User: Fold these one by one.
Assistant:
Number 1:
Amino acid sequence: MTEISKLIPIRVLAVLAFAAAACSVEAGNQIPCVEDFSCPNDYPVCVSGKCTAGTSSAKASVAVVGAEGHAATDFLSGTVRVIVSARASSGVQSVALAAGSTNFTASTPAATPPLYAFDVNTTTLTDGDRQLTATLTAGDATTATANGTLHVDNANPVITSFTVAGGTSTTITAGTTTVISASFTGTSATATISDGSGGSVGIATGGSLLVSPDVLTSYSLRVTSRSGVSVQSGTTGQPSNVSVAVVGPASFTGNASVSPSSIQQGQNGSFTFTAPTFGSGMTAVVKDAAGATKGSTTTSGGQITVTIPTTDSSTTELDYTVVISNAATVPDSVSIPLVVHVGVPPNIMTFGTSTTITSGSSAALQATFVGGNGVITPGNIPITSGGTVVVAPTALTTYTLTVTNPTTSVSVSTGSGGQPANVTITVVAQPVINEFSCSTVHVTSGDAIALSIKTTGVAGNAPVTVACTQGSIAGFTIPLVSGNGSSNPNPTAPTVTSTSTCTFTATVQNAASTSVFSRVVVTVEPQPS
């Protein structure tokens, strides 16, 4: 900027020079100087920055010392106070400072001669290295000039971006971090990020910073050029400040549930999911096995209705997850798995047929079914599909088959809902022939043979077969009324040549087709000759 690096050393040098002028000392080549005028009378010549003995030829001297408080290499902006040193043996009439055609006014307060101060508004100069010219007019009207250089840079740095998590705001879970990023322009510009608490941290353009506040915090970015020109986020024309909100981690008490917790294959309708208890600002989401969201609620303990999906014979369960998330931009979450079991719909294909049995005997019940376990009532008799169970009721009994799916607890029963009919077992008494007789057991060929029968528990009539040792008699049936009956017409004894026999066998049966028989033997004699 000038030949002098700092204003403060110049002032000290001037004091030393004046002190030396007031009191001669043996200090040749020891007193620092800038020019002859800064040396004491005993050592009036400034050589290589040191006062030495000799004769000074200087009548007037002027120098641009530099911008107050700045090094010669500093870039400057705004208005700076430039110091000029000026002396003349005939006295100083005036000192002026200009840059080209621009003249600068003296500073208030003024500097103490031989120093002169000027207010230089660098904004009136073009950015870059600009030459200043100091002009001294001595008391004898002689003049002297000196040049100095200012490095001018009034350009504002530019904040091109200032984001947190890629935006202007974000919400994090307590204890986690997020990224603040910044980009800006400006040669040798520097930047700091502040959180409003008095602290700040530097950041380079294109750089990022991890932050983890405990409470809602706003961050600002200040960018300063090499000459001290600053811009700040949140001000007119600049990107906004960024903010980070903080929420607690996701949590819940109790548990989630789903109703129904089991369904049949092919069942339609909807599930009702009930969320557990959770804190304010959290959300409960129901997701299926593929991770697709099926519904949500922001109400603690709230319900979520989800349509039952299509199921087929290969579906045995449906997997769901209730996810509790907080309001963070990248949510913290906890998951609760729920399983809905899917069962085959029970169905009965066959279940025996109603029948009649004789008291003391048994009947076989057969069944085929799918989708569950079979039980026959009364008696709670288990049966497998395709299997057979034997029952021996003592009275009329109606049997019902119930098939229950163990997964869904859905059941179907015979006798209803389009299922096969119940099976009724009718129990009848044993058939009994109380009496089977002939009016005579000794007849002659050609005689009529009168037979009668008395029965109980019999269904139908009493067929009779006849076996004779000579000749033959055709079989016949005795009609029964209330279990009793007589032959009509009566059979005729066969023609025999010698004494023979005919055996009559009557057979009866009950409604269960259980049969009994009784015999009567009749002796047949030949006709007398």
Number 2:
Amino acid sequence: LNVTPERMDGWIAAFRRMRDDGIDVDAVKDHSFKSDDSLGYVTDMWREGDTLYGTHEVQGKDQIDLVRRVKNVSPWVELDHHGGPTGTSYGEAIIHSSLCLQPVQSGQTEFVELPEGAVSGRAASRVPVYSLSTAQSTEAHDMDPKLLAKIQAALGLDTLNESGIGDAIDHYAKAMSTDLDKTSKALTVAQGEIVTLTAKAASRKSDDKKADPPAMDGEMLDMLVEAAEGRLESLVLSGRIVPAVSKKLHAVLIGEVGKRNVYALSRTVSRTERSVIRQVLDALADNDPKILHEQTSAQARVFSREQGEGEVDKTAAAKEGELLANASWGPAAA
């Protein structure tokens, strides 16, 4: 997960919207969703530099003793969270903060205890939830003004303050939902085309007297899957599809481990000039981009290939397309 200050600010905005709507962000242990493993609640969240902080209201002597023994926490990030009685979409959000051992982010400091009855305060409580580095900032501040200005420009607003950013993004999300509906319809059409092509391929195979295509090597199948997933990620990062559509495309065109859609990945199996998945992804690449804020170089990279500072690997997407274009393999070996 590529965690940036901008991404943390998005989690904070989602947290505040959820809190305003009466949706709790739980404090738990071992990423459990059982009530017996509840420690309390996260009552506030903010960012200082490259570190995300949260105030954890822990209830009960045993739970407090546990927090005193175990200092590490790990957030559970849901990429497309829906909550409340009407299933409101909050986008990418932290839905709980878990006490755990060996978290992904190491080097965390101890919890800082607040006096009983004290209100959540940024100056008094610095409890790291997730950090880009082990260094702790000592200066408390609100959202970066430069980031706020970028969001304001992206949303086409004359003015925007931190307190109103949630409503502004919600309005933008509703507009994006229209594009999601259009893309979903396009996906339905694509699924129909896949069914048609599958029927044609089955008919050809029954009349084909030649030997079956060679079995696909597992490593080559993994390369095709990696390239296809890279194309999907590029389409999301460039704003041409939303994460929800990416998930649907992955399920239909790539499939889960052990049940890969070799037909869609290999042009030899589908007997088409270009693989089925490449045809679909090339078509989706023509969508108008919808980008909320400026992307960093790291976010724009499809593969984690290091470049000079400020540069983006402009050949990564082309290489993925080339790999998919040259994918000429048979069904996966049993």
Number 3:
Amino acid sequence: MFRERLLKKYQNLAAINQAWGTAFPSLEAVTPPQRPDTSQAWVDFQEHRVWAQLDFAAFVTQTLHAYDPNHLVVWSLPFWGSPVCAANWWSWPGSTDILMRHGIDFGGGAHRMAIPRDVAESSGKSANALCMPPDYNPDYVQMMFQLAAGRSGLSHVCIGGTPDHTYYQGAANSTLGWKRKEPIYTASRNLNQLVRTLGRTFLLSKQRPPQVGVYQSEKTLDLNGIENRKINGIFLLLEDLNVDYRVFSESGIHRISEFPVVIIGPFARCFSEPEAQGFRNYVEKGGHLIFVRGAAEADGRNVTVGSPGFGLEELVGSKQAADMGGVKLLKGSSGEDFPVMLAVSTREVQPDVEIVAQTTDGKPVVTERNAGKGRVLYVGADLGSIYQSSWTQDFAGIDRTDSQVIDDNAFGSWFRPDTAGRQAVALQGHRTWAQLVSRFLRDAGAYSSVTMQGVTDAIGAVRAKSFRQGNDYWVGFANRVVQKGMDHKSSPPDQYHILISNLRCTVRVDADVKPTAAYILPMNRLSGEQQTAMPEPLALTAGANAVSLTLPRLEGIAAVLLTNEYEPLVGISADHYHVLPGEVVRLKGRIINTTRRPFDATLSADAAAPLAVVEKPFKVSLRPGAAQEVSFSAAVPPDAAPGHLLVQIVAERPGAQPRVSPSLELEVQSAVEIDVLNADRTIMPATDRDHSLRISGICRVRPDDFDLTVEVKTPEEFSATPRQFKLKADASGSIAAEAELKDEGGASRVAEGEVTIQGTVRGLPFQKKLPIRLARGTVAYEEFLAVKSHSSGVEGGKTRLIALENEKIKANFIPGAGVLYDLVLRETNNDVLVKGEYPYGFVLYAWGGWLGGGFAQVRREARRDRARIKDSRRKARYHEGDA
């Protein structure tokens, strides 16, 4: 196919040889280059690889659509970062329904959100961001993902999993009935609730007018490759400044006049004269250009032509004097320090150039000059890599301990959060570079769509971004100021974050639509047992091209709706999160009339079975802007099983679609939970250091509301003392008891007994039976465990294993395959083989005999099984990441 396309492009073999500088005797002898270089052959091969990739994707998409026209096709866009990828994301909209890229994050993958988002918005397709599990990032980082990515919301590689997995645990424990991991479960769920509450306003909303364009060259990506940090750092800087930006490429260069400021850098290394002229015209007509070292240094074959080339030295007002390594610090014209890394380009400047920063021995590196009606800021250092090198999502890791320096560095001298004696994690990013870019943007008339008094001066302290859909705007907020030493997986938002109170915000609005009302959108706030997800009205002050409001409190994340008229907002609160069978939960519902007309509505509580709502629906009448609350109660049946139940408030109006509050979850807990320790392993009373049968648990009811008895049945030659006893709970509700197991002596033996716990809890019968295995000496027995024989299974089924065990070790074999599944040191209960559900380990073979070709047959089977095990290991490493 590659040769056919070459022939179509060049018409004949002689033209191919002339273009490539080769002497292939025939078309069949033509071979592509083996590694990146600056030849025309490499250009042609990369163009072919881009075409082949897109052609294959289009074929798959069209085939699926032919058989299922409504089937949505999602492609995870190809890897980005090296020239071997040939990953032209801007051409993908024609080959897929939904653009997606997995592995998103800010530290190294900001481009995986920004570029698919902008490709999607310019093409009319949808974009999605595939994240790590919900518990992997704090709530504010997930909100930042939501603001930076495409408008279809976030996806996760898994929502729940086993607690012992390194990465893919998720926000619910699959081994304990999907028990939620708070507080991160509710924090992550809030983002899904936000999408549900806003509906079309979220999904169809657009970013605000771009203030900065980042020019990323497709040719550079395909021929040279782009180091992620060189462009990611630029995105991180702009995100920290809360500036709306767009990424564009050669195919979108006609849009350059839309941007007050454009940034080019090493991610636009490969250039052409038409591009260079386009940028000259842009600046001549009043555009502002940030020109970062590495831009426009090579031609269309990636041959270096200058620093920069294409006559752009005149535009930036300087030419390179030297490529200087070992420089770690630049001094600004006002005495400020600019940290740098790698090499810098020192400059020979024109007379009209202003020197912004120079080396300590006076060699210019950062310059600025007027050009035509515009202005150019030249940065002779790798700004993206510099900014990313010390960027952290919560600004952790500063080395200085002086509190005033930390505060200044973290928040700016104008902003002080109310830490109330707590130490906030401080900013580590290079503020001087961000301040320089911020000042240049401000001078160019570029603005943030959302500014916050005080906080805006604290670079990156609060991420805020606004969107518009039709006549409505919505604004998302993410508080990145967190308390030192806190963990987002275990610390509630009010403890994890430093609270920002009375946050005064200004949101720019378009001349054709100026909102008159503002509302805090309902998000679930879990404080102890209290759950609240209520909408709140905000006072709004209108200006010429902006509106102002005050957010009363910002813990982790928040969202605000700006509107003239909207569908009614509905909220809910509950006085319990954990409930017991037989209890009653008190609920409140709130409705706000956000329309311009009075209406009548019916409010009801929609509770999942077996919850039973006591009250009948309420009828309410509301004038525009008015709010009303109603109360409900939901009863949990006495025999309700443990689990999670949803409840929400529904508002119905004649002739209108129902409006629904965010849903709250109630966790139904058992009145009594009891566990028998050591019941999951073989107990050898004669040799085990720990040979007691210990019973532990928790009682959540009054002591006189439960009456439970334990009976231990042992096989012959074993005994338990005591064999029968009552369970009691202490003042805190803890239950603890034990029975000593004894070995009466005899030959090697393994046998099963049983522990029975029965009685009544709150007058209802309770029974729990658990088998126990007792043994002496060296024994063999069967057991059935969840084992995956390959990596494609969703859940492992029960597999028959043969166990060999003595007082020192236990070995489990998969019969037939000859696989040693695990090898456990009994004293520590540690498995010395790889942990997991896959059958890796030693492979043992009974070689059979020589007669009848038995050895040859078994040898073939051995080769087959070894290949299967090797493939299983390879897939396991790929999928699990911890092999």
Number 4:
Amino acid sequence: MKSSKLTKLFLVLLTLGLILTGCGAPKEPAQTPGGKQKVLVGTEGTYPPFTYEDESGVLTGYDIEVVREIEKRVGDIEIEFVPTPWDSMFLGLESKKFDFIANQIAKNPEREEKYSFTDNNYFVSAAQIIVKGDNNSSINSLDDLKGLKVGTSVGSNYTKKLEEYNAKNNNALDLKYYDGNVTTVFQDIDAGRIDATLNERLTAADNIKKLGLNIKTVGEPVNTVPSYFVFRKGEDELKSKIDKALASMKEDGTLKDISIKWFGEDYTK
């Protein structure tokens, strides 16, 4: 009986030791059956023309095609996209649900403190004011939006721009915050529930075309900002691989060609 108890105690301690040893060991990157490193990429999948599902339910868009080309050039990685709502995107990266983000992300000081960005950008976004299509008032700048209801997505760089304007102008804009993708904001402009928003001009054009929304861009771009892929700090090896491939795409003109294919112009610089 005593021997049996000692044996059981030994087995329990051995199991506990193996568990603790496993917890302390560094986590190896997931491998595919072909020996490639599995790389998970967070993306909205609801933000055309950059990342969205086509009529067949296949994930596509400019960002998706750029990442697929990077995958080919790196060679030893296999990409799997993880559709993620915008308001959960950075949380998903932090909790390691995916390895990097491809979703038209711009730098700002707060983000740069917490995350790493590719050295190379892959797109230059232009923010424009968007209003209802039959709005014939002379709206051409943020100053013209004073006193109006302006919709904006929580946590976006466009929201930050609007909040900075409000901070300098006694909260002159009546900001209405939205969770999720920007399509709902566009739909509320069309329905007259809000007056305007600030967002990427190409996204507005795509929604007008595909959803038949009665909205339009007005004025000149409020600002232009480069878009980057975003990583957790410390993921230097993977970031270096992505950067090297992206640099080669810029050098040989492939990135420019992908932009022209999607937008008719080179928006990469």
